[in-house]
Amino acid sequence: MLQPGYNLVTESVAETESELAALEFFRRVAADEDIETPVTVTGLTDLLYGSVEDERKAILSDLRQTLRKSRSLGSMDAVQFILDGRFVDDSEFRVRIERSGDGIYLDIGQMFVEEPQPMSATHAVARK
């Protein structure tokens, strides 16, 4: 079940009426456009994986600022980010992605003002 806030999942936990690619979702959030919620956002791990490794921290920081400043989403709205990987929660919340035999870690927790809280092995929530 989706919780209010940002639901990070490796397996979908709810069917939503609305689905957006990560780039489109963040474009709408940055423009303070209305977003029908609950919404499923796909492709975030692909977007980050495809970026230059040295730039990922800056990208995550920019995405955090975009989410923080936006009025597109209220505190009770639910967003489901479907991530292609598995959660690793050691010193900080990360996602491990396997591509071409190489595993990389994405510091996805850096995208949120509040560290995502694990609900299960495949579901974590960061509050808005």
From TrEMBL:
Entry-linked Pfam families: DUF8076 (PF26277)
Ranges of residues in domain DUF8076: 3-127
InterPro entries linked: DUF8076 (IPR058389)
Protein name in UniProt: DUF8076 domain-containing protein
Organism per entry: Halogeometricum luteum
Lineage of origin: Archaea, Methanobacteriati, Methanobacteriota, Stenosarchaea group, Halobacteria
